[in-house]
Design goal:
This protein is an alpha/beta fold and 531 residues long. It is 45% helix and 11% strand. It folds into four domains: 122 residues, Rossmann fold; 90 residues, Fumarate Reductase Iron-sulfur Protein, Chain B, domain 2 (Orthogonal Bundle), CATH 1.10.1060; 154 residues, Rossmann fold (3-Layer(aba) Sandwich); 129 residues, Rossmann fold (3-Layer(aba) Sandwich). The protein has a four-stranded parallel beta sheet, with helices on both faces. The protein has a four-stranded parallel beta sheet with strand order 10-9-11-12. Helix 1 crosses helix 4 and helix 8 crosses helix 9.
């Protein structure tokens, strides 16, 4: 099995001295092992560890210094956390956490290191080749100006009246960033598509849709930006992907058809499912979010999935879940990778239709928009109904004989962009979540200054463009929430929870911004009852 690829990220200090001794003595190091010398294991992020698997590695080992002997103090502790989280992701993907190992060695432990290398090599031989198909990096090329002009026409950008309403409403512009949708559109229309300013701004846009909502000519600026990113990616241009592009890398990996993903093995035993059901619950990426952010934010977005299933069970709906569920591909699409998005879309639709599913229910606004709108518009037809959990809940509650326990909390609501402004295929809008909140009858419900169609974005979309300006936007949003006098910020999107929770971790403003957050689905599941 000489075609195995085993990557060894090795600290430059203690363990490398041991490895150098093995080389000096012509030790029989397995030929499949490829050593990468690094300054410190704490510098190898989760995105770098996982990227090795995306690029075709069958096994990865991170080899560092024992606790207390790291030259930089915290490197060993950081590396341990990164390895633990990445192993959790590999487990969810069905690759097997055994494909990643952590080890420490002193300079005099060359023999122990050789034993480790042989043991790990034997383990990878037993596991065999990774089922991941490596993704090829596109080489740099000129941007296709003709295609860009076609996009200008397709999204009706030429109808721009140069009124500036888009820029005056843009959350990024208002946060102080030198960014203007109007200026960018004018530069592209004038042929300056390859200018550094345009290339920077295309990746800065939050695609939140406020400009689209305010535009008197109904220019679809978010869709235009999405497709412009696709042109830039096709030309080998890179974007500003947060977390080292980890989540884009994860989704590209999911396009490998032979993966045996273990998406639902963590589900509580009291949840009632029916594998023969014609209704399927599509969970989305929450298990990956919780694993990735476990040591940083401690988010529990999987609670949204569990509470959605509890809500369905309350309505005597026992759905199926697909054990091999993949990401819907939303973030790939909105960060310019339409090619891999379509691969995911085709795999998802084939799996759902092969199971005989007639209706897909989801609690994620991005999944809902992607499945119901983006798949068919981009050439992947769906022969099943796509329903948001709020639509289903309202439909069932409206039948009568259902009430809610009084919730003694003062609430305010964060509108997700993909639920309120950018989901024209849905009847949800800004009204349905508020209708459900009024059914709960909390102690108080106060709206924020910017709400509904005018709501501020949580500061990030598609894991791109995270910077000090988006952080300022998150701080502004949390201050608006605090100004309502509420003690509970209700969300309807897992990413809103993640991004706003991240802002609450600010070392200087954290205590001022902290407040409880819960998804509306979880509140419904907790308080609903039969009358």
């Amino acid at each position: 099995m000489n075609d195995l690829k085993i990557i060894l990220f090795m600290c430059n200090w203690n363990p490398h001295a041991a490895f150098q001794s093995l080389q000096d003595n012509s030790a029989d190091i397995p030929p499949e092992v490829r050593m990468v010398r690094i300054p410190c294991t704490g510098r190898i992020s989760k995105s770098l560890l996982f990227r090795a698997f995306e690029m075709g590695a069958d096994g990865v080992a991170l080899v560092g210094c024992e606790a207390g002997s790291c030259r930089y103090g915290s490197g060993t502790a950081v590396a341990l956390r990164n390895v633990e989280d990445t192993r959790g992701i590999l487990k969810l993907l069905g690759l097997g956490e055994e494909r990643m190992r952590w080890a420490t060695f002193l300079p005099e432990q060359a023999g122990e290191m050789l034993d480790f290398l042989n043991s790990f090599h034997q383990q990878i031989q037993t596991l065999g080749k990774s089922p991941v198909l490596p993704t090829l990096k596109k080489s740099a090329a000129a941007i296709d100006n003709e295609k860009a002009m076609q996009l200008v026409a397709a999204h009706d950008v030429l109808a721009c009246q140069d009124c500036g309403k888009c820029s005056s409403a843009c959350p990024l512009s208002l946060s102080g960033k030198p960014f203007s949708p109007r200026a960018m559109a004018n530069m592209i229309m004038s042929g300056s598509i390859e200018s550094p300013a345009v290339q920077e701004d295309v990746w800065s846009c939050l695609t939140c849709g406020l400009c689209y909502d305010r535009c008197p000519s109904a220019v679809d600026f978010p869709g235009f930006i999405r497709d412009m990113r696709n042109i830039q990616k096709a030309a080998g241009k890179t974007g500003h992907e947060a977390h080292g592009g980890f989540f884009q890398s994860l989704m590209r990996t999911m396009t490998s058809p032979d993966l045996k993903i273990q998406h639902w093995q963590w589900i509580p035993e009291d949840i009632r499912l029916d594998p023969e059901s014609k209704i399927l619950f599509f969970g989305g990426c929450a298990p990956y979010f919780d694993t990735y952010f476990k040591h940083h934010l401690g988010v529990r977005t999987t609670d949204i999935l569990v509470d959605s299933l509890r809500l369905l069970n309350f309505f005597d709906i026992f759905p199926a879940v697909h054990p091999n569920e993949r990401c819907c591909g939303h973030d790939l699409l909105w960060t310019g990778d339409e090619e891999n998005f379509l691969k995911l879309a085709q795999l998802n639709v084939a799996a759902i239709e092969d199971a005989g599913i007639e209706e897909v229910v989801t609690a994620c606004p991005e999944c809902h928009r992607t499945l119901s709108k983006d798949y068919p518009e981009l050439g992947v037809p769906v022969n099943f109904k796509v329903t948001h959990i709020f639509e289903l809940a309202e439909r069932e509650i409206d039948k009568g004989a259902i009430g809610f326990e009084h919730l003694k909390r003062k609430m305010t609501f964060q509108d997700p962009c993909r639920l309120v402004r950018l989901n024209s295929s849905s009847s949800i809008g800004a009204d349905l979540p508020r209708k459900l909140i009024n059914r709960i009858q909390p102690q108080a419900f106060e709206e924020m200054q910017d709400r509904g169609l005018s709501a501020l974005c949580c500061g990030n979309c598609g894991w791109t463009g995270c910077d000090s300006y988006t952080k300022a936007l998150q701080v502004k949003r949390l201050r608006q929430a605090k100004d309502t006098g509420s003690d509970l910020l209700v969300t309807a999107c897992p990413k809103c929870q993640i991004h706003l929770k991240c802002a609450m971790e600010d070392l200087f403003l954290g205590e001022e911004l902290k407040m409880d957050m819960r998804d509306l689905t979880s509140i419904l599941a907790e308080t609903i009852r039969w009358e």
